[in-house]
Amino acid sequence: MFDKFKGAAPLDITPRRALAVALIQCMASDGEIDPEEVAHLVSVLGRNATRDELDRCLKHARSTPPATFLQEVTPKLNQQQRLCILLNMIDSAMADGEAEPGERDLIIQYQRAFGFDDATMEPYFNALVAKNERAVLDV
């Protein structure tokens, strides 16, 4: 009987929804969601994202532990999609200036589940660090 109060059907995980859930988990992993992170989430979801879509992804992110989500989503994604999600997580974590320990731990968990080693990720990481190092513009 109480199942009627649970709301919408289970979220069908598409690559774009996987990105949204991963970013929400990353944003929440440090205990606070910064305005820069929300702006990044909205920008990567694209113009066609609706409030309902975002709410459903948020509900899924809150109710599904990262390890469970990774078991569910990893087989549904190809290597390019996995890399895209991981890089967006790193970029989001760095959006407020520095990745917090909870964000770093979650990103490492995703990196391992997605099958990327540090050597593969290093050039991408260095590019994101350079992109987000806006202090160089103040000289």
From TrEMBL:
Co-chaperone DjlA N-terminal domain sequence ranges: 17-121
Pfam families for this protein: TerB
UniProt-listed InterPro entries: DjlA_N (IPR007791), TerB-like (IPR029024)
SUPFAM superfamilies recorded: TerB-like
Annotated protein name in UniProt: TerB family tellurite resistance protein
Native source species: Azospirillum cavernae
